[in-house]
From TrEMBL, chain A:
It is a multi-pass membrane protein. It comes from Nonomuraea pusilla. Belongs to the ATPase A chain family. The gene is atpB. Key component of the proton channel; it plays a direct role in the translocation of protons across the membrane. InterPro entries: ATP_synth_F0_asu (IPR000568), ATP_synth_F0_asu_AS (IPR023011), ATP_synth_F0_asu_bact/mt (IPR045083), F0_ATP_A_sf (IPR035908). One of its GO terms (cellular component) is proton-transporting ATP synthase complex. This is ATP synthase subunit a. It is found in: Cell membrane; Membrane. Keywords: ATP synthesis, Cell membrane, CF(0), Hydrogen ion transport, Ion transport, Membrane, Transmembrane, Transmembrane helix, Transport. Its main location: membrane.
Automatic annotation (TrEMBL), chain B:
This is Putative F0F1-ATPase subunit Ca2+/Mg2+ transporter. It comes from Nonomuraea pusilla. It comes from the Bacteria. The keyword Transmembrane helix applies. Keywords: Membrane, Transmembrane, Transmembrane helix. It holds the Pfam family ATPase_gene1. The chain crosses the membrane at residues 20-40, 46-66.
TrEMBL record, chain C:
PANTHER family: ATP SYNTHASE LIPID-BINDING PROTEIN, MITOCHONDRIAL (PTHR10031), ATPASE PROTEIN 9 (PTHR10031:SF0). It comes from Nonomuraea pusilla. SUPFAM superfamilies: F1F0 ATP synthase subunit C. One of its GO terms (cellular component) is proton-transporting ATP synthase complex. It is a multi-pass membrane protein. Keywords: ATP synthesis, Cell membrane, CF(0), Hydrogen ion transport, Ion transport, Lipid-binding, Membrane, Transmembrane, Transmembrane helix, Transport. HAMAP family: ATP_synth_c_bact. Residues 13-72 form the V-ATPase proteolipid subunit C-like domain. The chain crosses the membrane at residues 13-32, 53-73. This is ATP synthase subunit c. The record marks E60 as: Reversibly protonated during proton transport. Pfam families: ATP-synt_C (PF00137). One of its GO terms (molecular function) is lipid binding.
Length: 263, 71, 76
């Protein structure tokens, strides 16, 4: 990986992906138990706890937690589920709501002070989610349209001249069954990865030029670094919300596409 | 949705559908025809078919996406 | 001559970064103007949508062409 080297009074090394994302195990000897795994587990418990606390015995006059969670539920139902699933929306709300909250809390871990690591910036986590959505998509498609009908609807969109299908069917096949789940996972992963790198870089600039090597010339750069860190933290919070929303939205789009054959 | 009525929400839905699918169509087109071109290049020992395949794939995938989503 | 600043690593990454600027601006213009056009004339929605789609396909194709350009030029 390339490293941008800025020569100030001494060497300033930008943080490399290896030192940012290749974390040592928390308990020595247990190799799989690293920080992202711990955060993923905590987030899952948090989502279960929030939903349990809010929806286990709902009141007519909602309390504080129930109020907030109902707001989230309404958001997911109106913006994610209903536009793509129509009247089937309520059946799939369980999946979509957990998906949205889980990804959102995974992402927001990147700016929570002590955690400070977006779980989705390890590609394994979004890949597993996207993979399970992909399996669900193919299963539902085969169940609702028949195994042959599913592939027929998938690969031969109506309304094109006959001979051109020979050229276009491979594109349809590859795009729907291989590229789509891949981009589904990579979009979330890449945004979180790049965002974490960006935050680490700017806070490193601020720390280095203001605390480690304080020089009259370097102080200005350090101040810019601190200001950029604050600005990009706000921007990152927006991106984290947006990516969680998009992940749930694409999942609902794939499910909707399998339930109803092409219009 | 077969019996769906043309409402603004549904139009927006279709539009979002198209916008999210287009990049994967273009990538798939490049992968299929670029891949065929690359294989032809390896087979014939040339280097012209790979770029040609990439461009052809882009054009075909763009045509497919345009025809499929603009009605 | 002493080195003041240097860039090491894969130059094609920088190339793609530069190549993505243009399509980025282009997609922004297409959707910005498209939404504005729909807001001004909602009854022309179908036509505007069709042209937005065409513009988006062509611009996105340029962005993806930038992605494979390093592979093409590595071969030549």
């Amino acid at each position: 990986m390339s490293a941008l080297t800025v020569l100030a009074s001494d060497e300033f090394g930008a943080p490399t992906p290896d030192e940012l994302f290749n974390l040592p195990p928390i308990i020595p000897g247990v190799d799989w138990f690293t920080k992202p795994v711990l955060l993923a587990m905590l987030s899952a418990i948090l989502v279960i706890g929030l939903c349990w606390g809010a929806f286990a015995n709902p009141k007519i006059v909602p309390g504080r937690l129930q109020n907030v969670m109902e707001y989230g539920y309404m958001f997911v139902r109106d913006q994610v589920a209903r536009p793509f699933l129509g009247k089937d929306a309520d059946r799939w709300m369980g999946l979509l709501l957990t998906l949205f909250f889980l990804v959102f809390i995974w992402n927001i871990m990147g700016v929570i002070p002590i955690a400070q690591f977006p779980v989705a910036s390890h590609i394994a986590f979004p890949a597993v989610l996207a993979g399970s959505i992909y399996v669900l998509k193919v299963y539902l498609g085969m169940k609702h349209q028949g195994p042959v009908g599913y592939f027929k609807n998938l690969m031969f969109p109506p309304g094109l001249p006959k001979p051109i299908y020979l050229l276009l069917s491979p594109i349809e096949f590859l795009s729907n069954l291989i590229i789509a789940p891949f981009t589904h996972a990579v979009r979330l992963f890449a945004n979180m990865f790049a965002g974490h790198m960006l935050l680490a870089f700017f806070s490193m600039v601020g720390f280095w030029f203001l605390f480690e090597k304080l020089t009259p010339l370097g102080a200005g750069v350090g101040v810019i670094g601190v200001v950029m860190t604050i600005v990009f933290t706000a921007f990152e919070m927006f991106i984290q919300f947006l990516q969680a929303f998009l992940f749930a939205m694409l999942a609902s789009m794939y499910i909707g596409g399998s339930l109803h054959p092409d219009h | 949705m077969s019996e769906q009525e043309r409402r603004p929400e549904n139009d927006g839905r279709d539009f979002a559908d198209a916008m999210w699918s287009i990049p994967s169509y273009l990538l798939a087109g490049m992968a299929v025809y670029g891949g065929i071109g690359w294989l032809l290049d390896r087979w014939l020992g040339m280097s012209a078919f790979f770029p040609i395949g990439i461009i052809l794939g882009l054009v075909l995938a763009g045509y497919l996406a345009y025809r499929k989503f603009s009605r | 001559m002493s080195v003041l600043a240097e860039v090491s690593g894969n130059v094609t990454a920088i190339g793609y970064g530069l190549a993505a600027i243009g399509p980025g601006i282009g997609v922004g213009i297409i959707f910005g103007q498209g939404v504005q056009a729909i807001a001004r004339q909602p009854e022309a929605y179908g036509l505007i949508r069709q042209n937005m789609l065409l513009g988006f396909v062509l611009t996105e194709a340029l962005a993806l062409l930038g992605l494979v350009a390093p592979f093409i030029f590595a071969q030549l």
